[in-house]
Design a protein that fits this description.
Length: 1065
Amino acid sequence: LASKNHPLFSLSQQCAGEEKRVGTRTVVVGHRPVSEADAYVAQKFCDNRIVSSKYTVWNFLPKNLFEQFRRIANFYFLIIFLVQVIVDTPTSPVTSGLPLFFVITVTAIKQGYEDWLRHRADNEVNKSNVFIIENAKQVQKESEKIKVGDIVEVKADETFPCDLIFLASSSTDGTCYVTTASLDGESNFKTHYAVRDTTVLCTDEAIDSLTATIECEQPQPDLYKFVGRIIMYRSNQEPVARSLGPENLLLKGATLKNTKKIYGVAVYTGMETKMALNYQGKSQKRSAVEKSINAFLIVYLCILLSKATVCTTLKYVWQSNPFNDEPWYNEKTKKERETFKVNGFVFHSVCSSVILSYICKWQGDFLHQGKVDFGPVEFVFTDKTGTLTENSMEFIECCIDGHKYKDCISEVDGYSQTDGPLKYYGKAEKSREELFLRALCLCHTVRIKQADQVDGLIGHPECKNTYISSSPDEIALVKGAEKYGFTFLGLENDFMKIRNQKNETEMYQLLHTLNFDPVRRRMSVIVRTTSGKLLLFCKGADSSIFPRVQQEEIQQTKVHVDRNAMDGYRTLCVAFKELTQKEYDRIDRQLNEAKMALQDREEKMAKVFEDTEADMHLIGATAVEDRLQEQSAETIEALHAAGMKVWVLTGDKMETAKSTCYACRLFQTSTELLELTARVVGESERKEDRLHELLMDYHKRLIQDVPKPRGSLKRSWTLSQDYGLIIDGSTLSLILNPSQDSSSSHYKNIFLQICLKCTAVLCCRMAPLQKAQIVRMVKNTKGSPITLSVGDGANDVSMILEAHVGIGIKGKEGRQAARNSDYAVPKFKHLRKLLLAHGHLYYVRIAHLVQYFFYKNLCFILPQFLYQFFCGFSQQPLYDAAYLTMYNICFTSLPILQSRHSSVPSAPCLHCVIIPFCSSQTKWVGAHVTTRCVFQVFGNWTFGTIVFTVLVFTVTLKLALDTRFWTWMNHFVIWGSLAFYVFFSFFWGGVIWPFLKQQRMYFVFAHMLTSVSTWLAIILLIFISLFPEILLIVLKSIKERSHQVRNKMKYCTVFLQRPLLLSTR
């Protein structure tokens, strides 16, 4: 057996086509050895258990604690707690250990509950019942007991329990229909095909008689690629080998539809299925908010450590005087004299404040988890088809040999005409018309879903069937051919049936399908007519068809293609070639050899396709309309007004994309367009020199020749010229990957400067990898602007993963984009509310959250710092240990989480540094004067309680002043927090607690409130601390009111002058 190691590839590598397959595996179907003489050795593959959980009962505690303490902040706080436990400090280790324990415990409970839900979901899947064919009988087993090589029976509407190779079905043609909504979100039916030689094995006894082995690639996560072959052994006959591809693979998680039952052999099980591999190891993006909060904590830590250093230094300066260091009533021991001590209280205050600040960060993460950088997005990269447009295709017109056909063909003379007055566009030969329409009916992968028969419709041939396909373009083309009299009737036993204009049924044997891919941008079929003629029909983008047809046939069709593209239609060209039997035999042999290859199958198939699709004859072209999505133009205008730059990255033709950009108002009529396309650069050997000239010319016009603004910024902005840039994929390749002998290494920088000066950029004919390169180029520019990518298809996954923020549209091209995005939305118009409402409000709230925690923690620590100057830096705490612990956890944490604000406060840095400093100074000086100069002085703990009471009320009422939108929840948490503080203080000081060595707070709070001077001091200090804030609010209100009065007076003046102007006229 081959190596069982399997590679895991990143999605970005897959999109770039860089996957490397390592080794193969051999699967024995039904565990029956090929030869009875050979001893069968059971293969060792993983079982079919799905494990999405992280923990078990035994490893949850150690593993969760290890993961949490791997974070530097948690580990740092753990060390501080242990130091406080070991070293004698004036405060209890509980004051710092309790907040850390609170964070660790709540996080562990949350993660444990989420993992329990994953365990429950895994058990539902693993314990579900399946049927295995053993000894020609059905054996019911649990899903987790399926082994690689087992033959599994799946019935209609059941989910495939593992990745299966499709062997046979209840359908005689060996087909089945599946939906992959749980994998890629596509709800439409997909057709899969059984192995040609096993389609007749549609019973338990027949399928059990199969002796075969399967050789296939090792598991890899790409849902749409599979390479393998099946070798069937028959008695007294040579082994027969057949190729296996993605059309033969039934994926775990997909659901069987419109088919009674199928048989399949398990090739990938458990955590090696494609579904499991796709849900492993998805990288998480860190938002700028999280990074800024980390930086804020570091700065805050430096501030507090500097305070500790100052206090420790001053402590030893104070103790340098023997009288201060060792008074006669408190002499030191020899051990105390030899011990160096940092100012313990301030050091504790540093640790406690940083811990509590970390709780701020944890609370922000907990409430805003999953949020990414919506607020400061500067660049929006969007796909066109399915994102700006509906991806709902409607056949508009076609041209045959240069003659335009629209709406319907006259049955009398064959001329094309439109509804209403008859319009003649010229006429192609009747045989060419029929050849073109037959090509539309045959060159596709559309299948027919039989309509349900109901009473009154049974036996009516006019009852229309439903076309199903993975591409809406193909359905539109088949329906377009139906309008002109050629109807596709379906595929049966490898024969395609169509009904012509004479209502006759034609049969064509489908020999080969050369499937579409984004690189070739075309697809072909090879069919045999009933007369034995061999035909190849091909359709695709004009850029991929024109180089492969006779050059003299291009011009007459190219005119129509260009005009349709300028009208905003999607265009496809249709070509054909008649094959001789000898040519077909060669192509058939080459295709079969390429299909049987296990290594580099895609490259070998592509080479055969390239040779086959050559020297064709052009028949005509089609035009399909893809309408703009609702409010897409308004959304782009709103994003532009918000200061964002929108770039469109598409694989469509330049003319089509350009027309769409005008329709969605990306380009305005006043926008001057700069073009960097193959048409402008040229195809000559001097194209790099020509590109250099264009880049330097555009750079001079946009950057060097722009006059410096004079006067106001508004004036210079209104007088500036808007520029738009159009670039195609081939020119972008020259810029990003210049030839080795060219001196154009600086192309990229010049190009980037031009792009950044343009108001809008259109990139057409882009490959998926080039889309990601564009996003990466902008993302890595100076200043690291925040980027957002939005798309709806698999070709958009690379740029979605590359951007800071990835948005997936749940469109008609599947759910690949939505599955790999940070957020998924139904329509492009929802991007407006997502960015301008939710993104803005999120940043307002998180900014106020950070500022408020900075403010209240500075207010909390500054009085303690000032107190050290009055206690000889003796490590004497100002606040009680219970207050230290409860300040951030209970007294001041809830109000900020329910606050509502209209805008970010102006001058936030000044606001957060000066205001808490003034408030702390006021509280400190006021409390000091009150306790020293007024009537009663109760002692150290009374003084600290007065300061702490003023502190709690000030920071809470400060938040109440900032609240712009009041709800019952705001009232409850703000006034409830103050009431809880008062209740807790009475309760904490009203009971003699047996676990405390010192009852220093006993009856302190209640006795403090018996003094009228204390009441007066508290109220006065709170008012003085909040007076600057109140003054700012009053001044701002007066300014806004005067502004409103001026606007009303201006409006009244204009209104009163209108009758005078009218009478003058």
